[in-house]
Amino acid sequence: MKKKWLIGIVLLCSVAFWILSLQIFWFEPYTVYGVLAAFIMIGVSLILFRGYKYEIDRKWGILVIPFLISAFIVHYPYNAGFVLLVIGFLLVASLPRVYVWLGFAVSGLILTIQAGALSIYHLVIPSGHDALFVSYIVYPLLKIFGFASSFQEGTIFIQRGGDVFPFPTTWDTLGVYPFILVFFPVLLYVLLSSDTINQAVKRAAGFSLLSLVYLLLRYIVLLHIYFTGDLGMEALSTFRNIFFSPLWLFVTFIPFVVLLLFVYTFSVDIEFPAFKIKKRLAILSAVFFVSAFLIFGSVLFYEEGTKKQGRVLVGEIHSAWEPSSLILDKAWYGSESTYNAYSMIEWFKVTYDVDRVMSPAYVDWVPGENISKTEPDVISDEITAEILKNYDILVLKTPTMYTEGEAAAITDFIRNGGGLFVIGDHSNFCGTSTALNQITGQFGITFEFDSVNTAEGRLSIYERGRITHPSAKYMPYFDFLTSCSIKGPLTVGRVIPGYALHAEPGEYASTGFFRETRRDLPILATDRDWGIFHQCVAAECGKGRIVAFADSTTISNFRIFFGGSDAMAIGSMEWLNYMNKYSYVPKLFFIGGIVLAGVGVFLFGEYERKMRIGILIIAVSAIGLGSSLAVTAFSPEVYEDIPAMYYDWENTVCFDGEHSSEIVDSGNKEGEYSVFLIWTQRVGLVPSIENSLEKCVEKGKTIIIIDPVTKNFSQEDINLLKEHIEKGGNVLMMVDQSRVLGLNLIAEFGLEIENVMRQQDAEEEEEGPFVPWGPSVKGGEALKTVGDRVILARVSYGKGYFVLCTISNVFRNGFRGQPGYMGYNGTDPDALGEGEKEITWEVYNLEYEIFEKILQ
Questions:
Q1: What domains sit in the chain, N to C, each tagged with a CATH number?
Q2: Could you tell me the CA-to-CA distances from 152 to 165, 416, 789 in Å, in that order?
Q3: Looking at residue 76, what DSSP letter applies?
Q4: For the whole model, what pTM was predicted?
Q5: Cα 623 vs. chain centroid, distance in angstroms?
Q6: What are phi and psi of 683, to 5 degrees?
Q7: By CB neighbour count within 10 A (0-12 exposed, 13-18 middle, 19+ buried), where does 400 fall?
Q8: Per residue in 827-848, pLDDT tens?
Q9: How far apart are CA 623 and CA 628, in angstroms?
Q10: CA–CA dist 497, 126 (Å, integer)
Q11: Which of 753, 769, 767 has the alpha carbon at shortest distance from 808?
């Protein structure tokens, strides 16, 4: 009896380990507490097997090899089970007669089984949060338990006081995440401890029914707890805590484990066969190895395909939002000038042959004063098959509705080998999700009518994991500005799976389709989804390919070249420029893997019951090795930045992110020079932020170093920059009085910085951006002076220039020196007051002069 309860503690600790270690509903994992739970699990396991009389052939220590390979390839925490199995079988090899190895091996086995269950969860849940059919069971139970409720189209409405709360049943609110952590290990034990197949089926059915009953009752109890609490301003946080906090997820499954301990008799008897290479065991191991390799390969296999010609058509006929047809230049300002996709499409022209298709009305359209439009490459009322036959990739951005003929032509284009890059936005803004679903829905991909942010309500950040999609190979991270969620088939490629998020339905009474007018209502706490969501997916459809992305704001002129947007866009275009040749391979892999798994289960069933857990450990070693090798074999090679081949060296401006202060917003860090960076696009340049000077030199003619405060320049750095300038490159270094590092670099070009003091008898007046006191350049060719102060100087070196600017503070975001004078990305100087207008134009024109004249 005592051992039974120890088994329960081991199982609960394993559940706690995963709940505390993973970012499913909470952005920050409780890693330390998760590790503590794992140590408790191991300790209890050692107590469980203390004094256990069992001798294993030390030669079984050979299993360390497959477990070690799996532990090395699979990342934490999913490799935790393999790590414990490695320790266990190292002990087998050294101390086979000591029971300690069993504690590690059994703990590792449980964690490994749970990791496999979580792999299924991660694959299924992003495209299937809704558990609508369960609502049909829950609703009558709520009536029985006295809830005032109604039911419509799969959603339960619960009345409390004068409010009616919509409660769509989801797998997340049901608690499926912690449930599978208990269900799968126990189900496997129930099957292994059965004497016959018939008995195994009956016991599995009984256990599944018992589990379903518990899930439903737990859900009803949580609903009761929620509705008996205070549902005022804290309704949302209360809902989140009760249904998704680690504490509640763990505590509410303790009764389930206790129930199982009363219902089932758990034995700790484990036997291994003698160490002999018997034919049946060898075949079983080989079958499970190949099966796991094929099944995981079916998910991870992405063929390179046949490269196409790179002919791109951008659909502008329906682009009411995020058009690319209006030119970003020095004449047009305001929010609309940067809130469009012009820069992205122009950048694509470096690598691809890009055309825009416009409607006939566009030809005669006059966009407005100071606004220039691009010339149409193709003029048509519709996107037709006749047009598409001349192209390899079609780009569709936040469009209005398509005609049936257009939808059919685009669908055929994809199936016949075309690539489709579709870009949507949150909450069906302007009907864009509805329009895009006309096309992508034909392939099982739908843009949902919601807005997705972190569970705390902040903008979400994606960090690339070990397993990724080829279109994300240049994208180590991505900063979102609010996307919608995307649903797709289980075979869809996970380009950006977002974790610890919540999806909030749109509100069409508000301008941005966000819930702005009724955000604080308690009834709006219960109708959203939580957990893992697709924010960008890819699919192979016949010979063609689709990439569907859900946050159009990030491709705007003011964001396309940082935050991961450029890496997402160019990686997607690269993948779409290939045609599938072996699209049937994943299906063959999956079918073959399932068939072999069936063979393995049959062979497994031939062993005596007392031997099955021992054989299971051997099988797990084969499955772990097969799946981890599949990860190695089929995962694409990943990079930390975009290759230089996607840039025109002459027209690229590289911002040195290695030495400079924060240039742009990144994650939770606030940048200071984003407007300065964006404005380089107004003079026809492409900005790029690089993490090393080597990458700067490789990609761009001009290198910008702003406020070098993170580290000084090594001699290797200096030599690299001197060689770059000597060959025709340029370096612009910008500093101010309070931020001066890199004096050794400045000195290499014969320059110094001296401080010009403010005269005591100077007239008291409002300071502007250019004042005659502060840091001044000594040496070189003085290009701009204010009084006796040199604020801009140039040194010719070989074929290029080194330029030093001592007023970096002027070029920071903000107005009137708070903290800078560049404004923000939507600033229109002509809309400002007379004084600010004059100052802003002076600062802007100085930046343009630097790039168009001084650095040429």
A1: 280-299+579-613+629-642 (no CATH), 311-515+523-576 (3.40.50.880), 647-758+768-854 (3.40.50)
A2: 13, 41, 74
A3: T
A4: 0.94
A5: 28
A6: -110, 20
A7: middle
A8: 999 999 888 899 999 999 999 9
A9: 8
A10: 8
A11: 769
